[in-house]
Design goal:
single chain, 280 residues, alpha/beta, Rossmann fold, Pantoate--beta-alanine Ligase, Chain: A,domain 2, 2 domains, six-stranded parallel β-sheet, three-stranded antiparallel β-sheet, 11 helices, binds pantoate
Length: 280
């Protein structure tokens, strides 16, 4: 496994692979790796010839400084996991290497970044677009693999690739869950034991919403049921639960409004904000 910290060394190495006709698969991460990331690596390895993983905690996508400081960092463990997973290339740049000067670009994604995470975390998707476009420029992957837990992020990245006319196939990979249903996330390691147990309710309420749809309860009643379950215990603070068109993220008010529907949730468990979604 090659580990690079400098753009020039990474691009020189990958250029030779590309020129030899090999396809490059890219998994961008912020480290604190878990099995969900390794499953993305698995897709990259199945579908391309050279697997590249980046580890970079991107400051421009954090609108809350405390959240950036608290974000878990486990570089040695990450490298050991990637080595064991037969990753070919790791890119671990410094902040100065990625942003030699501040990135002032403003991206526009319309409704996609005005709702849900975009509304709650102003500037978040602009920061994601800044770093992903820079990483894409350096890695020049044929395919890039993203986890569907960050449903809105995948949509934004697909839009970014279109807006910048990049020839990159953005692959949305399935959410990996713990045995009790909790979506795997680097943030899970910040939960106390009590919070970790409580966090399973997020998946449970998503299942409740799914069965309510199947039983033909209204969208309003379904939303209210989820809100009411989570409001009963003070450990949870629901940020949003929305039922949306899966292709536009426009909130729907009746199931008939849309053929493909997704439920999206963001909820604090204690101080830790977790997100999840379910395509019905
Ligand atoms: O999903 C993440 O871990 C990050 O948002 C990403 C895509 C690596 C960009 O920093």
């Amino acid at each position: 496994m090659k580990v690079f910290t400098k753009n020039s060394e990474l691009t020189a190495f990958l250029d030779t692979k590309r020129e030899a006709g090999l396809e490059i698969g890219f998994v961008p991460t912020m480290g604190a790796l878990h099995k969900g990331h390794l499953s993305l690596m698995g897709y990259a390895q199945q579908q391309t010839d050279i697997s590249v993983c980046s580890i970079f905690v991107n400051p421009t996508q954090f609108n809350d400084k405390a959240d950036l400081e608290r974000y878990p960092r486990t570089p040695e463990q990450d490298l050991a996991m990637l080595e064991a997973a037969n990753c070919d290339v790791v890119f671990m740049p410094s902040v100065e290497e990625v942003y030699p000067e501040p990135d002032t670009r403003q991206f526009s994604f319309g409704l996609l970044d005005e709702v849900l995470e975009g509304a709650r975390r102003p500037g978040h998707f602009n920061g994601v677009a800044q770093v992903v476009s820079r990483l894409f420029d350096r890695v020049k992957p044929h395919r890039a693999f993203f986890g569907s837990k960050d449903y809105q992020q995948v949509m934004v990245v697909k839009q970014l690739v279109q807006n910048l006319h990049l020839n990159i196939d953005v692959v949305a990979c399935p959410i990996l869950r713990e045995a009790d249903g909790l979506a795997m996330s680097s943030r899970n390691m910040l939960l106390s034991e009590e919070e970790r147990q409580a966090a399973t309710l997020i998946y449970d309420v998503m299942q409740v919403s799914k069965s309510m749809k199947e039983k033909k309860s209204s969208v309003l009643a379904t939303r209210q049921a989820v809100i009411s379950i989570l409001s009963k215990k003070s450990i949870y603070q629901l940020d949003y639960f929305e039922i949306c068109d899966a292709k536009t993220l426009k909130a729907i008010h009746s199931w008939e409004e849309s053929k493909h529907v997704v439920g999206l949730i963001a909820c604090y468990v204690g101080k830790i904000r977790l997100i999840d979604n379910l395509v019905y």
